[in-house]
Structure formats: structure tokens, C-alpha cells
Design a protein that fits this description.
By secondary structure, the protein is an alpha/beta fold. The protein has 15 helices and 18 strands. Helices cover 32% and strands 24% of the residues. The strands form 4 sheets. It has a 6-stranded mixed beta sheet with strand order 1-8-4-2-3-5, with helices on both faces.
Length: 488
């Protein structure tokens, strides 16, 4: 075997559940704790002084450069300090880049880490309590990823810029494309999410471990308020979590030098990256994702596998539409188990760092099932930025392979878009945003007669209530030139 073959040797996941805000640790200290636990998981806590690169996944925290603090705390102050851009894809993308750095010989021992304290922050806001924040100095030696605006002028003009607005529009477009009624589709989706809940119940690292029935998931209630049609709270990513994780990876040669037992080794076999159009307005449709199909299937192809030969899968699961669209693109049946964590609702959704938890859990599952294959999908933005990885305890037959599939994705069809359109349109998809128990505003994606996309809103209470029970995809409407929708 190539001594520079990359291998994961240690993982850690931890939670913070505070009763007193004064006892809460901030994200940067949770990262340090997770890194130390990951080294202990590898069986050699002393390896941390030999780490030559610390890679921190960007969070909502406001640290200037936390990698240096982590490096100082674990005893490798001269290690390379690396950060990432925003995006749920960034953990897998960073692991792909790290595997290539190890394979090339540029690095031999790398730590990835990240943390969020959304639960503590929510409690602090409610109590008007100011949480402490350490100041960190210096600049990153390197940033992985490209920062890009995810919303174009057309979406911004109608204030459609949040995941809770866009993903339900993907959901409704998918339902209409599949020819399902609202009730049929909602039942199917809630059953899918209930299966995710069952996995979380068996995952010792999950945030919500009490199983939730499909009926409870799809039924609005005081504890499961409607957020944006068709999603009640339990179909949304749960960002109110305090979670941290870390991954230690190195070369096979370094693992042997450190005396790491081979029972801990899990190999990344392949990795791919690609992004769909940054602006949703430019997508050919709202129910598919070429970047997932092209880059995801290529990761499997490079590993010499088809999707049926993968034993364990974790499909990125911020919202049900993300899972269903990815499953369709990859050829994964919905009745197959599509998560190892329980997903971002039940396993926990620490924003950009979720995939570090899905990879860490996959490592544990694969260690318990030697020779099996695991497949990770990662998603950032609005089904925008994607990364994939194949893993196994079995050594790969070839060196780690990575490809960026962007040139191929860029050849896929796109649409033109308009902002202040006046005239007749067909509603492509829609959602209704809620304030408490009442509809607040209806957002629609519309197509003009010549196939251009534009966006419009409605505040008509009768229309919004009808949208909750009647199919509005495919309906004729008109827009007044200022983004106000009228239904025919």
C-alpha cells in the first residue's frame, strides 16, 4: 500500500446540555474537547502534538481565526491554520481536500473540527444573558471553498432568501411533478421522517432520541407549529443544538508510526465536488439537481461501486425535499434507510458542521461492520453546493481519487429570469410562511409564457388558506409588475 494513503483514525462527537448558562462552554472550547476525544478514540492522545494542520469548519460564531486557539490548546502551535467558507458541504469538501493533501505528502496528520451552541444561544437570548466569547488572533494560512452569494436579484426582490422559504418550494414542485396529492405526499414524507427518527433513537450521539410517529410529524400542534407549507417544525433542520465533533486523519505511514490499531482505520476511497447554479432563479426546474446526480454517481463510479453495493448511506437531510431529490438523482429508494445519524431534525443540525457528525457516525458504523461500504452526501445553500465521499475499513484498490465535476454540471440546461415582470404566468411552485398559527405571506415561483422564471408574493388570506389544501402548482395567475400575484 502507498504509505501516503489517507486514513481516518479517530472521531469524536459531543453534546452540551446546560441548565445554568454560566456553565456553558463556548464553541471554541467544545472544539478543543472534541479534538482531544478524537485523539483518545484513536488510542493515542499524545498524537496531538504531531498534528501539522488544524482545519475548522466555519460556523455562526464570530471568532476571527479559531484554528490557532485549537492548535495552541492541544500542543501543536506551529500547525497550519485552515478555515472554510460557509456551507453544509464544507466538511466533506474539506475532508476531500485533506485526503489529497495527505496523498500528495504535503501533510501527514490533520485534524478537522467544528462546533455550534445554538441551544445555549437561544436560551441566552430568552434570558437576555450575554455569553462570553474569546478573542482569537491572526489570519488563516488557507481557506477551503469559495464564498458565493446564494440568492440572486430576482429572489431578493421578493425577500425569498432563507432555506425555510426555498426548500418547501422544492417540496411542492416535487410533489406536483410526481403527480401526488397534498395529503398523499405529506403522508409519504412524514413516514420517511419517522424512519429518520427511529435511527436517531438508536444513535447515542443524536439530539432527539425519543421516536416520533409519522402522524405527529405531519400534524401541526403547539409543539409542532407550522413554519412554511408543507413543513411543520419537525420537518425542519433542528439548529437549536449544542454539538461539536472532530476527525483525525493521517497517512497510513503516520498511523503505523503512531501505533494506531488497524481496527480504528477507516479509509476514504473517493470524493467529488460540484455546485448547481448559485441562483435558484437559474435552475432548469425546482424538483431536480444535476450536481447531485453527476458528482454523486461519479464518486461511486470512481470507487467501482453502484448505489446498490453501498451498505450504509447518510443523505444530507436539512429538509425532506433535500433527501427526496438526492435519492431520486442517485437511484436510492425512499424505503431504504437513508441516514446513520437520524438527520438534521432528530440527530441534530449544527449548521455547517452536521456532516462531521454524519462522517463520524459512519466511521463508528463501519468499524462495527468491517469491509462494508459507506456513502456520505453533503449539501450547502439551496441544493446548491455538493460534496460526496465513499468510505470503508477495507483498503481501497487504488489511491484516493477526487474529482471536481463542475465543467460537466455547467453544461446542464438553465433558465433566464426576470424581476419586475408584468403579465400572465403559470405557478411553478409556492409556499406559505406562517406567523404563529396564521399564514403570513405566500411566495411563488412562476414561469412566463416564454419559459422565464420570476417570483411573486401574495398576502391574500383566502388565497393563502387555499394554498394549504389545494394544488396551486400549474395554476394560471398574473403579476402586476411589482411582484404581487393575482390568481385567476
Amino acid at each position: 500500500m502507498n504509505p501516503n494513503t489517507p486514513v481516518i483514525i479517530g472521531v469524536a462527537q459531543l453534546q452540551q446540555r446546560v441548565t445554568e448558562l454560566k456553565d456553558a462552554k463556548e464553541p471554541i472550547d467544545l472544539m478543543v474537547d472534541a479534538v482531544r476525544q478524537a485523539a483518545s478514540d484513536a488510542g493515542n492522545p499524545g498524537l496531538l502534538t504531531s498534528v501539522d494542520s488544524i482545519r475548522v469548519v466555519r460556523g455562526l460564531w464570530r471568532y476571527r481565526q479559531p484554528a490557532g486557539y485549537v492548535a495552541e490548546s492541544i500542543g501543536c502551535p506551529d500547525a497550519e491554520k485552515v478555515g472554510t467558507c460557509y456551507g453544509g458541504n464544507m466538511v466533506q469538501s474539506t475532508l476531500n481536500a485533506s485526503a489529497m493533501d495527505i496523498l500528495s505528502g504535503d501533510r501527514s496528520l490533520i485534524v478537522l473540527t467544528g462546533a455550534e451552541i445554538g441551544n445555549t444561544q437561544a436560551k441566552a437570548r430568552k434570558a437576555d444573558y450575554e455569553l462570553p466569547k474569546k478573542e482569537t488572533e491572526g489570519k488563516y494560512d488557507r481557506i477551503i471553498g469559495v464564498e458565493a452569494v446564494m440568492s440572486g436579484e430576482a429572489e431578493q426582490a421578493r425577500e425569498i432568501q432563507q432555506p425555510i422559504q426555498v426548500y418547501p418550494m422544492f417540496e411542492n414542485a416535487l410533489r406536483h411533478y410526481q403527480g401526488e396529492s397534498i395529503d398523499e405526499h405529506q403522508t409519504k414524507v412524514s413516514e420517511l421522517w419517522s424512519r429518520f427518527s427511529d435511527v436517531a433513537a438508536a444513535n447515542p450521539h443524536a439530539w432527539i432520541r425519543d421516536p416520533v410517529t409519522a402522524e405527529s410529524i405531519r400534524t401541526a400542534s403547539p409543539r409542532n407549529r407550522m413554519v412554511s407549507f408543507p413543513y411543520p417544525k419537525l420537518m425542519n433542520s433542528n439548529n437549536a443544538v449544542d454539538m461539536a465533533s472532530a476527525i483525525v486523519m493521517c497517512s497510513v505511514g503516520k498511523a503505523r508510526q503512531l501505533g494506531i490499531d488497524e481496527s480504528k482505520w477507516v479509509y476514504p476511497w473517493t470524493g467529488t465536488d460540484a455546485h448547481d447554479t448559485y441562483f435558484v432563479s437559474e435552475r432548469d426546474n425546482l424538483y431536480s439537481c444535476p450536481a447531485i446526480r453527476i458528482a454523486g454517481l461519479r464518486a461511486l463510479e470512481l470507487a467501482g461501486l453502484n448505489v446498490d453495493e453501498v451498505d450504509f448511506v447518510d443523505v444530507y437531510s436539512c429538509f425532506p425535499s433535500a433527501v427526496q431529490i438526492a435519492a431520486r438523482e442517485l437511484g436510492l429508494p425512499l424505503n431504504r434507510q437513508l441516514t446513520v445519524t437520524g438527520g438534521l431534525t432528530f440527530g441534530g443540525g449544527p449548521l455547517n458542521n452536521y456532516v462531521m457528525h454524519s462522517i463520524s457516525r459512519m466511521i463508528e458504523v463501519l468499524r462495527d461492520n468491517p469491509g462494508k461500504k459507506g456513502f456520505i452526501t453533503a449539501n450547502g445553500g439551496f441544493l446548491t453546493k455538493h460534496a460526496f465521499g465513499v468510505y470503508s475499513t477495507e483498503a481501497p484498490s487504488a489511491d484516493f481519487q477526487h474529482q471536481n465535476l463542475q465543467p460537466e454540471v455547467d453544461e446542464c440546461p438553465t433558465r433566464e429570469w426576470l424581476i419586475d415582470y408584468r403579465g400572465e404566468v403559470t405557478i411553478e411552485s409556492y409556499t406559505v410562511m406562517f406567523a404563529g398559527n396564521d399564514p403570513l405571506i405566500g411566495h411563488t415561483a412562476c414561469l412566463t409564457k416564454d419559459g422565464k422564471r420570476t417570483w411573486a408574493n401574495t398576502s391574500d388570506m383566502d388565497v393563502m388558506r387555499s394554498m394549504l389544501t389545494e394544488e396551486f402548482c400549474g395554476r394560471s395567475a398574473s403579476i402586476d409588475g411589482a411582484g404581487n400575484l393575482s390568481i385567476h
